[in-house]
Design brief:
This protein has 217 residues and is an alpha/beta fold. Helix content is 48%, strand content 12%. It has a 5-stranded parallel beta sheet, sandwiched between helices.
């Protein structure tokens, strides 16, 4: 009788543990240096994915798959989908995927292949849709780039505004993905962005996390 009770208690403990594990929502943050956390003192703690994980708490597991300088375009100078981080993001089998790419694609030497942007982003979306977890996909619009272009191969906000963002919006509608648009929010206070006009500061990364947490919850 005693052994039966002990066995039953162990079974209940295991069941509760498995149930608790299943309730954890996994979030993959896919992107470039803005996602990685360039410009913050410690990306492991100060990047927007790191702060987002802290804000959401124990019911979530947020991982940062950001890689600096990467593009959505497969013919860009540093294609994200050729990176180990992309394979790791897929292996993570997330419940939620946040894609924030496009800033580096606006550079002239990358955007010469701009006609392929929609195709390449669709490829990324399709790869995520095929995962066993069937993740909910959020497409985050590139932040406002207020950098003063020094040469034609710098990040170009005009390309971002007039060409890249309309493509992202069209793909979001086609694939029933949600848009995350925090562009105005990130320009509401100068301390949210670094002097380079491209990367968020630690305060900006925290503001990004706060905005995304509000949307996810």
């Amino acid at each position: 009788m005693k052994n039966a009770i002990v066995s039953l208690l162990l079974l209940l403990m295991v069941t509760q543990y498995v149930t608790a594990q299943k309730k954890v929502i996994k979030i993959a943050c896919i992107g470039n240096s803005i996602t990685y956390g360039v410009g913050t003192r410690n990306p492991a703690k100060d990047s927007y994915p790191a702060v987002l994980g802290q804000m959401l708490g124990d019911g979530y597991e947020v991982r940062n798959f950001g890689v600096s300088a990467r593009t959505m375009l497969m013919k860009g100078d540093h294609p994200y989908m050729k990176e180990q981080a992309w394979r790791e993001a897929l292996d993570f089998n997330p419940n939620i995927a946040i894609i924030k790419l496009g800033t580096n694609d606006s550079k002239a030497h990358n955007w010469q292949y701009g006609k392929e942007y929609a195709h390449d982003m669709q490829q990324m979306i399709d790869s995520l849709k095929r995962l066993p977890s069937s993740p909910k996909i959020y497409l985050m619009l590139p932040l406002v780039a207020s950098n003063k272009m020094v040469n034609p191969n710098d990040i170009n906000n005009t390309v971002i505004e007039n060409e890249i963002i309309p493509i992202i919006r069209k793909l979001a509608k086609k694939n029933k993905c949600e848009i995350i648009d925090i562009r105005e929010r990130m320009t509401s206070k100068p301390e949210f962005m670094l002097s380079d006009g491209v990367h968020p500061s630690a305060k900006g990364a925290a503001e990004m996390a706060k905005a995304i947490a509000e949307i996810i919850k």
